[in-house]
Please model this.
Amino acid sequence: MPRYNAPFEIHVHGQVALRTDVRFEQLQDALKPLWKYAGARSLSDGANSAYEDEPGIKFDAQDHMLQMCWTVAGDHDFRQTLDELCMNLNEVADAGAAIEVTFYDADFDEEEGQPGIESRDDFLMLFVGPNPAAIMQVQRDLLVQDVISLMERHFDGAELSGVVGEVDKLFAQRFDALVSSLALGKPPSGSGGNHGGGHGGGRKPRHLH
Model:
C-alpha cells in the first residue's frame, strides 16, 4: 500500500541488458520486490514513478533492455527488497550492470539551510549479472573510471596505464579467490554494497531525462 509521510523518496536508476529469451512475464516476476513495495498488483500497475518527469520502469522488448528511473516513497525497510531484487535480476541479465539506489531525505530542505541539521540522504551502488565474472567486470570498469577521473587532475591519462593494471590485478585476485573457494554460485563480496568512489561532495542530484 502507498506509504504516507514516508521519511525517504527512494530513487532506483539503472539499465540492465536482458537475455534474448526473457519475456515480460519473467521480468515482472524479477521486479516483484519493487512493484510490490510500491503497493501495486503488477509491474504494469507499479511501473510509473512518483515523479511524472521520470520514465519509471521500462521494458524494451526489441533491444532486450530494462531501464529504471523510478522513485517510490519509503523507509529503510526498502533495503530488505534489494537482495531479492538483485538475485532475481541475476537470473535474467545478459551482462553485468550497475544499479544506483538513492535515499533522499523527504523532510530535508536544502534551500532553507537549517543550521545543525544534516540530510539523511544515503546512496547504494548495486551490481547484477549472469555470473560473478560479469559482475566483477562492471565493478572494475566503474572503479577504473573513478580512479582515472580523480588522477587525471594531477597526471596525464597516458601515465595511468600502470594504475589500471594494478586495479585489474586486484580483481583477478578476487576472482581467483572465488574460484578456489568454490563460491562461483554466490555474488562476489561487496556486490550489493556501496561504490564509494566519485559520489561525495554534497547532496546527490536526482536523475532527470
